Amino acid sequence: MSSIAQQHTSSFSVRDLDLKLKKVKLAHPEQSLPSPPSSDSGSSSPKQDSEESYFLRSLEECLAIYEEPSRPRSQSLALLSDEEVIMLANNGNIATYALEKLFGMDQLERAVRIRRAILSRASSTGTLESSSIPYENYDYSRVLGACCENVVGYIPIPLGVAGPLTVDGKQYPIPMATAEGTLVASTSRGCKALNAGGGVSTVLVGDGMTRGPAIDFPSAIQAGKAKAWIDSAEGTRGAPGSIRVDFEVRQAEELEDSDCRKDALRAGTEKALEAMQKRFPEMVVLALSGNYCTDKKPAAINWIEGRGKNVVAEAVIPGHVVKTVLKTTVRDLCNLNVKKNLMGSAMAGSIGGFNAHAANILTAIFLATGQDPAQNVESSMCMTLMEPTGLNGEDLLVSVTMPCIEVGTVGGGTVLAPQQGVLDMLGVRGAHPQQPGQNAQTLARIIASAVLAGELSLLSALAAGHLIKAHMAHNRSQVNTPAASVPVTPGAGFTSRA
């Protein structure tokens, strides 16, 4: 064997061949022929055989196939290999964002695969095409036109289950999608303590969404006249259905879904503004939402008036459970809660942040159940309260007040199969057959109760000095953290290995 042939053999591997074939994977192999052997050589090297085992048609040939008027574009694309489609896209003949529409519903995964290749090769790193980001075996038909655009795959998040937790006399598993170690375990400990006291009781204080349009008037006098008309009986009658027009628009919660609810609220707001426009033609509508609502931003008005589901969750925990399960005392817990959650947050000027880590639990459940994760901003506003109760104050009364839990069980991310599976596990998937809105309300009650468990456990760990030890044991990746950089935290029962 010649030195050149030896060099080619040693520099080529089966993996190289596999990657090469994947790049030129044919939708219909019969439409593209193997490259013929070179006419001026009786043999070929292994590298030549592997790299020329398939050939690509010219841009002109591919364009002619793609633009053939006698068949749909989806059929034309089926006659082209992935590499030929990529060539057309790079030439500007195919819009990368429109691949799913062009390929059709039965070729959605192929559209995602080709988009990955196009974006990867145009990037500075070039890693996406062969990265570990998964894209196969996913139902993209549920995503298309509903959840995401320019899709290149999906991101799996570990899903744990805390509990079960007894809420209003019924047991529920607490689904939590998170990458933070100890969170599920800690919430489970809180569930155990709450269950030992009989579980959690919840109250739905309010249920309604707001939309605050931004409107403009030439003068304050004209704006005042409009406000006076809005407050009058005539203005109130002009509002359609359950919509009340003020300088905000509020709708009673009758739907199961944040997106559907917003659509209905948007339509009602538009109708109300049309009525105002007829009465006050000089009025200019600047935006359907003027941030007075307020959505996905912290705001005192939501903390005070509520938005979405306004839920209070409460429980009484016997003193002996506080000692045996939570490893602390009622007195220490109450003192810590006042100094940390109330005084500390007040000193920081917090809005709705009078809690230890409500956002942790709420966001994990949001991700697991297909909610809008950005709405954790206002949804996780929470006040945690603790006080002694019972004979001689030996038991613990604990509650959380959450006035802005914005959740739904229809539409949005709840159309995705895994998220629907989680909602099924809770028994709140879709619209309630008899009482519209009840499934979403139940989900909000579960979330508030889970937050109560998380608050109870974390504050207990802080009061007992267990938090750091737990995180060092369970929330530190040994794979990504060199052993020498992991600090040793002495605790009860610590003995040196030296």
Automatic annotation (TrEMBL):
This entry's Gene Ontology molecular function terms read:
hydroxymethylglutaryl-CoA reductase (NADPH) activity
What's the main place this protein lives?
Answer: membrane
EC number, UniProt record: 1.1.1.34
Q: Which GO terms describe its cellular component?
A: endoplasmic reticulum membrane; peroxisomal membrane
Region (Disordered) location: 25-50, 478-498
List the keywords (alphabetical).
Answer: Membrane, NADP, Oxidoreductase
Q: What is this protein called?
A: hydroxymethylglutaryl-CoA reductase (NADPH)
Looking at the record's lineage, which domain of life comes first? Answer: Eukaryota
Bias type Low complexity, positions: 29-47
Which GO terms fall under biological process for this protein? coenzyme A metabolic process; ergosterol biosynthetic process; isoprenoid biosynthetic process
- Does the UniProt entry include the keyword Aminoacyl-tRNA synthetase? no
Q: Which family does it belong to?
A: Belongs to the HMG-CoA reductase family.
Q: What is the lineage of its organism?
A: Eukaryota, Fungi, Dikarya, Basidiomycota, Agaricomycotina
Extract the InterPro entries matched here.
Answer: HMG_CoA_Rdtase (IPR002202), HMG_CoA_Rdtase_cat_sf (IPR023074), HMG_CoA_Rdtase_CS (IPR023076), HMG_CoA_Rdtase_eu_arc (IPR004554), HMG_CoA_Rdtase_N (IPR023282), HMG_CoA_Rdtase_NAD(P)-bd_sf (IPR009023), HMG_CoA_Rdtase_sub-bd_dom_sf (IPR009029)
Task: Write out the annotated subcellular location.
Answer: Membrane
